[in-house]
Each structure stands twice: as structure tokens, then as C-alpha cells.
Amino acid sequence: MGASSWSRKVPYQADIAAALQQAREEAYQEGDCYRAEPNLRARQMSEQEYAAASVAEMREGFLAAFGEDAGDPDDGLAREEWHAAQIDVVDPDTLLASQPFSGTHSVIDMTGVADRPEGGRVAPLPDDELDRWFGTRRPDVAAVERALGEGLSGFERWHGAYVVGYDGDRPESIYFFGWSGD
Questions:
Q1: CA–CA dist 117, 157 (Å, integer)
Q2: Which of 14, 104, 116, 182: disulfide with 108, CB 3.0–4.6 Å?
Q3: Would you say 2 and 179 are in contact if contact means Cβ atoms under 8 Å apart?
Q4: What pTM does this model have?
């Protein structure tokens, strides 16, 4: 599938972690995310049965692609897939846990706040990027929305960023944005 860019706007609050959680909850409630079809086969089998069946299928594929030199596949990914299939999705965290390989292609993939870019976290857009994109460290809401439309993105894949949008001297909104999913 490949990664997807995403953005989410929430009203300003001083607690960035709480704002991120609000953005994640809203994205989940509104369905603004990728949600894989449940793996019913994995749910109907025991872990051992599912791992054995998956390894047998992988082995067939390896043999077809590489011949007799193909090694034996490991069952670790099949077991992780089985565990993920057992999760009942009820909120952003359980949705993310149920999709360990694909993610949600949304702000839900970001689970915390960091000072610097870090996988699975949002970090403030660095000052040099604020200066480059906006010419100020306090961009107005319209400038942030324009920049997001022009390609402002959050670091690299599986990373997110945030910018506070201002109305005059008053912080009005927090924009979370990034690139995640697979």
C-alpha cells in the first residue's frame, strides 16, 4: 500500500500530549484512518494452527520463488499477526495494535510527544523549518493550512510533527501532520 501523509487540526491547549490524544480519538471516531479487514481465519484458529498454516504457505512461496535453496521461514510474523487478530478494536490504541504491520495511515499512528523527531511520536516543527516555511515562529492559521497544502510534512515515515497556528498573538489551533502506514 505504501505510506500516507495525513494532518489533523484540534483547538489549542497547552498540553500537547492531551491535544494529540484528542486528535487520535477524533480520527478514530470519524473513521479518518485506514482500518484493515479483520483476519477471521486467524481468529478461528489456535496460535499454533495459524502459525503452522502460515509457515506452510510461506514455504510454498519461497520454494516457487527461490527453489530448493529457499530457507525455512520463521513463524514470528505469523504469531504476531495471530495476536493482532485477537484484539477487539474499541479505540485508537487497540486499532493500532490490531494492525502492527500496516498502521492506520493517520495521526492514530502517533502515540506520544517527543522533543525531537522519533518514530511513532510527534515533535515540534524545528525553528529553522518554521522560519523557512512561515518566516516566523508564530504562524497564523491560514499560513499553516496553506503550507500543509503545499507539502509541509512531518519528517520521515512513521514520524509526525506539530505546529501551533495563531490568531494574532493568541494560539488558536494545533496542527498535527506526518507520514505513516505501510
A1: 11
A2: 104
A3: no
A4: 0.90
Rg (alpha carbons) of the chain, rounded to whole number? 20
What SS3 state is found at 163?
Answer: strand
Exposure of 128 by Cβ count < 10 A (0-12 exposed, 13-18 middle, 19+ buried)?
exposed
* Half-sphere CA count of 164, side-chain side, radius 13 A: 18
DSSP state for residue 114 in the 8-state scheme: -
Q: Which helix (H) or strand (E) element contains residue 11?
A: strand 4-11
Among residues 138, 125, 135, which one has the least CA distance to residue 171?
A: 138
- pLDDT, tens only, 161-172: 999 999 999 999
Angle (CA) 27-182-71 rounded to 5° is 145
The closest alpha carbon to 154, from 104, 103, 120, belongs to 120
Phi (first) and psi of residue 176, to 5 degrees? -100, 140
Q: How buried is residue 15: exposed, middle or buried, by Cβ count under 10 Å (0-12/13-18/19+)? A: exposed
